[in-house]
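re: that chain from earlier
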Amino acid sequence: MRRFLPTTLPVWVLMIVIAGLLFTQVASLVIIYHDRSSSDEVIDLYRLNERAFWLAKLMYSVDSEERKKISAGLTNSTLAVNLASAPIVTANNTSSETLSELEDIIAARLSKFDVIDARIRLDPAASPSPALSDVVSTEPDANDVEDDFAVFAQDLIEADRYTVSIQFKDGQWLNFSTPVTPPGPILTARSLPVYGLVALCVIFVSMWAIRKLTAPYRLLEEAVTRLRDDFKHPPLPENGGKEYASAARAVNQMQTRLLEYVEDREYLAAALAHDLRTPITRMRLRLEQLRKSPVRDAFGSDIASIETTVQSVIDLAQMQITEEELERLEFWSMVESIADDYPAATIEAPAGDRARLICLARPTALRRCIKNLLENAINYGKNARLTVSTAGDMITLEIADDGPGIPEAKMESVFRPFVRLEHSRSRDTGGSGLGLTIARGLARKMGGDVSISNRPSGGLVARLSIRKAMR
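^ sequence. v structure.
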């Protein structure tokens, strides 16, 4: 169930807005329906009272025979009237307090017309009268007004009816019935598009507002992600909402402290490595004064290894401390010039126009990154095959070798400083364990990345991805 739930704040907020909109709409329709029903009931009771008054007034001054003629002429699609010696409503209403009060009101109001009793009953819909059936049937070419009349007449047929019995002093009962006003539909073919349009407008406005509100937080997320690769990225703007400003201020402070910590560490490492150069130089000078022997050669090899490590530490520190400007570079030309210096490297020309391979990078950093990857392939795989390709807005350089490869579980660990895999890479080839670390760090500072994977046929392939320059 959890996998179907949204995972981002904007989608959650949008879902809450839509749910709130639906709840509000349904609640509004229910309230409107009940309010309309209450208003219709008041109108029906008022109309019933008025009809009873005018019928009693009309029948009061005429004799019994004349009353029958009048009642026959009054019957229509919404009113059925008859005179009888017995009431249709056999007893006063006791189930509804409202109708009971209305009986008293009608009896008291019509007492001046010799009315001595009034009874009201609410009956369910009965079979339609002929008059109503005539109203419902319309011609095929009827206009909109006639169609509306037909629909309303059909609703009257299917509606409940008030039946009223009024007794005069002479014992005659006036019985009439009138339909209850049918509740109109809340949603119709005309109103439904309006509701849908309003709902869509609210949703689109909500989406726009949510996007505007969450834009600073997306910027905050991107900035925090960039801290992984570049501590020197420009700080976040601290304007905007109070919550965002506080979060941006905290991120900026964290970035400043991390940068100070890294710079202090790199300055210390560079200083120590630099100070080691003097005693290493003395050791090499004294070594030259010794006679040639296996011990002298082994000692010289150890000093060379120490010099390589010291130089790598200095390079790593300079990578963090120094900052080059980004430039538009011909990527293919740089790769070709670097590969020419290594006889064990072969390069495959890319398909298409080489001049289009323009990247946005730091020249020294990119050159160092490519050289580290190339030397790594040659040192551990004896040879290197270079291939350049493009995909989207990225240029990819693949450097494949024929070495023993690296266990899948240790693919990421080789990018850590001073990590060397003794079982997968021969230690006799030298190296300080900083080549891949420096290469990935330089690439990520330029908006690219470095990754490695084992080849199915054996060996390793390193991939350098760098962003194309915008035209």
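The first helix runs from residue 9 to 60.
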